[in-house]
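Extended Data, panel c. Modelled sequence:
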Amino acid sequence: MSEPAQQPAIATTSAPPVVHFEDVSVRFGNGTTALHEVSFAVSEAPGRGEFVALVGPSGCGKSTLLNCIAGFQQPTSGQVLIDGRVVTGPGRDRGFIFQQYSSLPHLDVLGNVRFGLDLDGQLPPGERRDRSLALIEQVGLQDHVAKFPHQLSGGQQQRVAIARSLVMEPRIILMDEPFSALDGPTRLDMQQLVVELWHRIKPTVFCISHSVSEAVYLSERVWIFTHMPGQIAFDIRDCIPPTLGIPPLAAQEQPHFKEAVRMVTDAFRTVSAGNRPKVKP
């Protein structure tokens, strides 16, 4: 069993962490406390960002944490910093992939993928198109460029959402149960695609999942959240095996993967039973 989370230590290098929470609490107007004094620092590994999966009981503040990183939600107390700067709102350095399909119905695949680039307006039109087409090819939609959302399957629409986020070349990708509405086989395909894209493009990723096996397959680090008010109870990483190039079903048969799933499941059960391991700020 992994030890209770020693809230990840702040990096001692000169470069600030990519994402840094300092005693962040979020309380809503109805008196609900979604997050309570959450502190962590996520820094880049050499040449790439980390992939962190968030697992925990429903309503424990996982989405609130992502919203704070995105700039959609301001903390009641504490600070959220990106690269050492306090987050005051959304920015192009962060991309968000939601649970629900979010394509604009009046735009085709190319129009949806390049939408953010067009709003941003910093690149010439030809470069926007070329970058968008390159991402469309990377997510396997090169034969569907002129199709509209109603002509696409659920998996294809999520591929559009992934391409639309990545085309902006964000430093951070936030994913809130992005595959929950997909059928089983499509969900497995999307898991493998995301792992491949993460290794290719190398952003820092935070992904919420209610599936332990999915969290272990996608990430290199799994955080288990307590019941509300949410805190990080366990930070599990040493046992998470690499899965690049391994299909999800094949990975699930490997002994190291099964052991990682067991450890994460045990930690989740500890939290679900109402135990709140002491978290060191």
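The longest helix spans residues 184-201. This feature is highlighted in the accompanying rendering.
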